[in-house]
Design goal:
The protein is an all-alpha fold. Helices cover about 60% and strands about 0% of the residues.
């Protein structure tokens, strides 16, 4: 990853925290429907995958086959979510996330490194242009998508009317893990994390 290791560690914290919280939502109780639990599980796995990919390569001696495994894993998930998107459009976003992760893993492998830091070496490892890794147009499209997604998730956190916080309207019932505001915040964090990962690769 281009930039200081601090950015990588920040992404590890954001992705891991969002991933764990989303997985906890799958145990939130009877109020959660099977569809909501499945969505929370998918988002949790994406958060943990983001955290794993963001670990600076200087910390772990990651094997050279790691990018191949990540490409196959996230590629298979992208195909699965694309098929599921026929019944639930939110799976289209999951397909975009997993496809972007597979794309970054390809760039990681082409850079001859492991972890997100391996992407920084792609240009120096024999690339044609010596520019940033990946395909600029595709990277730009993914950046635009996740920027718009994060913006939409942020708008959902705004109160419906006035300036009073949405949670101040009255007492809330049920588990805090099922609060729609926290669900939107989790999706916002993941969207911003994906945007940063693409921007710094």
């Amino acid at each position: 990853m281009h930039g200081p290791p601090f950015v990588g560690w920040l992404l590890v914290v954001i992705g891991s925290a969002a991933g764990v919280w989303c997985l906890l939502r799958t145990r939130a109780g009877r109020a959660a429907t099977p569809g909501e639990r499945r969505t929370a599980r998918n988002e949790g796995l994406m958060g943990l995958g983001m955290g794993l990919m963001a670990v600076p390569a200087s910390v772990l001696g990651q094997p050279p086959w790691e990018p191949v495994v990540l490409v196959l894993l996230f590629g298979a998930m992208a195909v699965r979510f694309t098929v599921l998107a026929r019944d639930d459009l939110h799976h289209f976003h999951h397909a975009m996330e997993t496809a972007a992760m597979a794309y970054m893993a390809v760039a990681m492998g082409a850079g001859g490194g492991s972890g997100m830091a391996g992407m920084a070496g792609m240009a120096a490892s024999g690339g044609d242009t010596g520019g940033p890794p990946g395909i600029p147009v595709l990277t730009g499209v993914l950046l635009a998508y996740f920027a718009l997604y994060a913006l939409a998730a942020g708008i959902r956190l705004l109160p419906a009317s006035g300036f009073e916080p949405a949670m101040a309207a009255g007492p809330q019932t049920g588990s805090i893990l099922q609060a729609p505001e926290l669900t939107a915040a989790c999706r916002l964090a993941l969207g911003i994390g994906m945007f940063i990962m693409l921007l710094t690769m």
